[in-house]
Amino acid sequence: MAPIKVTKVCCIGAGYVGGPTCAVIALKCPHIQVTIVDLNQARVDAWNSPDFNLPIYEPGLVEVVKQARGRNLFFSTDVDKGIQEADLIFVSVNTPTKKSGVGAGFAADLNYVELATRRIAAVAHSSKIVVEKSTVPCRTAESMRTILEANSRSGCRFDILSNPEFLAEGTAIDDLFSPDRVLVGSLQTPEGLDACESLAEVYSNWVPKERILTVGLWSSELSKLAANAMLAQRISSINALSAICEATGANIDEVAHAIGFDSRIGPKFLRASVGFGGSCFQKDILNLVYLSESLHLPQVAAYWRQVVEMNEHQKSRFSKTVVDTLFNTITGKHIAVLGFAFKADTGDTRESPAISLVRDFLSERAYVTIYDPKVEDAQIWLDLVEACPNVPLVNIQKQVTIARSSLEACKDKEAIVIATEWKEFREIDWQTVYNNMNKPAFVFDGRMIVDAVALQKVGFKVKVIGRGDRS
Ligand SMILES: NC(=O)c1ccc[n+]([C@@H]2O[C@H](COP(=O)([O-])OP(=O)(O)OC[C@H]3O[C@@H](n4cnc5c(N)ncnc54)[C@H](O)[C@@H]3O)[C@@H](O)[C@H]2O)c1
Ligand SMILES: O=c1ccn([C@@H]2O[C@H](COP(=O)(O)OP(=O)(O)O[C@H]3O[C@H](CO)[C@@H](O)[C@H](O)[C@H]3O)[C@@H](O)[C@H]2O)c(=O)[nH]1
């Protein structure tokens, strides 16, 4: 057997990963037909919308979809047809943390992966390369192979590859255009290596060969969890140091700069913050914790768990700073929260630290006004209802309002909390904001974006993460 030349790709899951990843494959490989399928009709309709009102906001994505959609890129809810026509299928469905049952709160919920796999087995009538794109625990590919082999028609063979995605939201298109690396894991059998070569050939249309790494299946699966755990560990490390800075007068920016100059450490991912968010870091570390516990490695599990615990501590430490500074009570006070997305340049709020902050402020009976340039109002309400399970939406809406600009959000408030590092927050007219606020006026910067000295000159009382009153 020789490696097959891929001509038709199907991607199951039109989300933050499946959508951008396969749109870029379509753009870079005009000779390949790419169909992205999803069960969610509204999502598929948005991908197909005539005015390109796509279901996710990602810089550069609309331009990619405009070039490829209708040419060799299609979005559909016809999952079975997508599967049947393809010779290579990406499984890019969600793998959230389990909410109930064995491993609840830690293990990945593999139900969506299993359902997608079973669907492939049920409807495929020709051989397929099935690619795990979702982030999954080590050895998930084995379960997929067992399901496919037990249910498939005779004459169909399935080769399973692991091809984890490393894009970050907000920079997804740049990351996909020039990835640090593409990782493909396969069984080290002749068939597995052939399948690996077929997928590597797709990427080689735009990714330099030396950046396409081929490894064993289990190493590939584990590398994804490991990469996220180590990235998040850097943030928890710098955030732990930010607490020491605040207590001593050291400045976390200067500390990060100094340590990042060591070429063994490097400067990236050392920005102290109110805490990391996003759909991946916490979920994937908890998944690693669960894997470690299942393998009877309790010390290893405890080590990684601490990265998440430090993140929780950072978020609650920041809320406490706000309460302490506002004279130990925020009851009845008015706070503007600037930013609700988990990072800039995305409308995604999954695990956003802003949600925890607003929840904490509401439990202290403060009034909160939120402004975010990209997050939809409906998403904010959904997130707050989920974060405050015992409070009906009508009551939340008595305490929370949503503003259309920073200026509007900050008017008549006692304090401003910066929760997301949107570029427009760096360009705020602080004098006008100050003139319209109640005094004393406070700014709490959870993203290190303001010029504290300039704001103090305007009249603000300023607290920046990682900088104490003595720095
Ligand atoms: N979001 C990121 O930045 C990112 C980056 C790298 C890896 N990942 C991983 O990629 C995977 C997908 O993440 P996401 O953020 O794109 O999730 P998402 O929730 O945005 O998208 C998943 C989509 O899959 C669809 N789906 C679920 N089951 C299906 C089925 N059986 N048939 C058809 N469609 C189905 C859902 O309707 C949903 O639209 C996860 O495992 C995640 O950990 C995410
Ligand atoms: O120095 C830093 C860097 C990031 N963050 C925060 O960390 C979170 C995650 O940021 P980032 O990693 O840039 O975005 P994600 O989209 O969550 O991407 C991560 O998670 C993806 C999903 O697995 C992986 O594919 C990416 O490689 C990995 O960076 C955000 O809240 C950031 O504000 C910091 O606080 N300080």
TrEMBL record:
- Keywords assigned by UniProt, alphabetized: NAD, Oxidoreductase
Broad class of enzyme this protein falls into: oxidoreductase
Pathway info? Nucleotide-sugar biosynthesis; UDP-alpha-D-glucuronate biosynthesis; UDP-alpha-D-glucuronate from UDP-alpha-D-glucose: step 1/1
What's the catalysed reaction? UDP-alpha-D-glucose + 2 NAD(+) + H2O = UDP-alpha-D-glucuronate + 2 NADH + 3 H(+)
Q: Where does NAD(+) bind?
A: 13-18, 38, 43, 93-97, 134-135, 169, 280-283, 350
**EC identifiers of the protein:** 1.1.1.22
Phosphoprotein keyword on record: no
UDP-glucose/GDP-mannose dehydrogenase C-terminal domain segment(s) = 336-452
UniProt key word Ubl conjugation? no
Q: Name the source's superkingdom.
A: Eukaryota
For molecular function, the Gene Ontology terms on record are: NAD binding; UDP-glucose 6-dehydrogenase activity
* GO biological process terms, semicolon-separated: glycosaminoglycan biosynthetic process; UDP-glucuronate biosynthetic process
GO CC terms of this entry: nucleus
Q: Which residues form the active site?
A: 280
SMART domains attached here?
UDPG_MGDP_dh_C
The record's annotation in Gene3D superfamilies points to: Cytochrome c1, transmembrane anchor, C-terminal (1.20.5.100), NAD(P)-binding Rossmann-like Domain (3.40.50.720)
Entry similarity comment: Belongs to the UDP-glucose/GDP-mannose dehydrogenase family.
Q: By what name is this protein known?
A: UDP-glucose 6-dehydrogenase
Which organism is this entry from?
Daedalea quercina L-15889
